[in-house]
Amino acid sequence: MLTASAEQLGMVYEKALEHDEMFVADMPDSAQTNRVYDEYLAELATTAPADIHAIALSIVGPRNAVDRLVKRRIESVKQQRGNPTSIPGRVMGKILYGAEHPFGGVITEQSLSAITLDDCKKQLATWMKPKNARLFVVGDVTEAQIRATFDHSPLAKWTGAAPAEPKLPAAATLPGKIFFVNVPKAAQSSVMVLQLGPSRTAPDYFASSMMAAVFGGSFTSRLNMNLREDKGYSYGARGGFSYPAKALGTLTVSAPVQADATYQALREVDRELKDLWSGKAPVTKDELEREKTNAILALPGRFATAQAALGQYRSLVYYGLPLDYFNRYVANVGKVTQAQAKTSAAKNLRPGQAVYLVVGDGDAKMIVHNDKAKQDDPADVRRLPYQKDGTQLTLREALEDLARSGDVGAGGLVELDVDGNPVR
Prior knowledge:
Blueprint: H1 6-17, E1 23-28, H2 30-33, H3 37-45, E2 54-60, H4 62-81, H5 87-97, H6 109-113, H7 117-127, H8 143-151, E3 178-182, E4 188-197, H9 205-217, H10 222-230, E5 238-245, E6 248-258, H11 262-278, H12 285-298, H13 306-319, H14 329-334, H15 338-348, E7 355-360, E8 367-369, H16 379-382, E9 383-385, E10 387-388, E11 391-392, H17 395-405, E12 413-416
Parallel strand pairs: 3-7, 3-12
Antiparallel strand pairs: 1-2, 4-6, 4-7, 5-6, 8-9, 10-11
């Protein structure tokens, strides 16, 4: 195609467009004559399709494209299976929502290899429809320019509506309290807490956000100060609410920790969660003011780029929030009180429903924190071997002992493989 004339490129372009299964991308000659992207778009918008001439074409057949993507994803799955930091993301949906839930699927080599070109075509034909779709444009462009662009585009004739959005089924969290995935010889572990939480449109959203920020949402949060600054078990621990669907919220705590500190880290996370939930250690005035200030000062950064601004407004539309939401954001954050944060913790932190996910080396020897040690004592003084009957326990043994004790709740220990299937 490097020596093809404009007429030849045009013929090839038209021929390729006759085949729905072909993907065609072209470079118009105006791309070479305009150095500013906005000017390029403006010229395209005012030029009839017949007068747009391509100087380069890319034509991709469907099957080889699907094969290439599948192969790439399979290699990614293989890497994830052996990485302790990736395994939690593979199995946490299945644990929290259940294997039959749309959010509970685990991608495997088999599921990827089963994807066919017809599957992709069916998905596209069923769901890629313009009715009820939303177009977001952020930039130095007017509504008239945008409309003119689409008036000259094949998209102007695009019609059709997708089926009604299916209602998500209720989550069915797997039976168990502590879920464990063994990764032999892993140098570090991952400790997580998973729990269903409030929706994005809950009336106490701002109180919940500030409470969660105190708990695990920032560098100075209780989780991070405990596991990183005080104990030295982790480079960073985080926790907070997320909203994977319109009417669905989750609490997720994540702490990558040193292998030998896995058991003690789990106990620390459990204690921080329960102390905040029970009111034993409610949000303090200083903590609340700190996080309110952080949230307000961070607001401009959420609009620092066009892409960032687009993400903010797209989120508002998705969750059904008003477009002037950010006009009242500072005031809403500022109005949160300690009493509201305490009420939110009691309502939205649910240790009895939460489950724990641990990924690490089951044979790693465990330590516990020496409560009598001082902050500046050496590590070997602050960390003591976790022993029972004179024998230092491994991670698997420590988790089994913890499950039997019921200290973190009833449900027992469930060991899973890297695809979330029970192994014992």
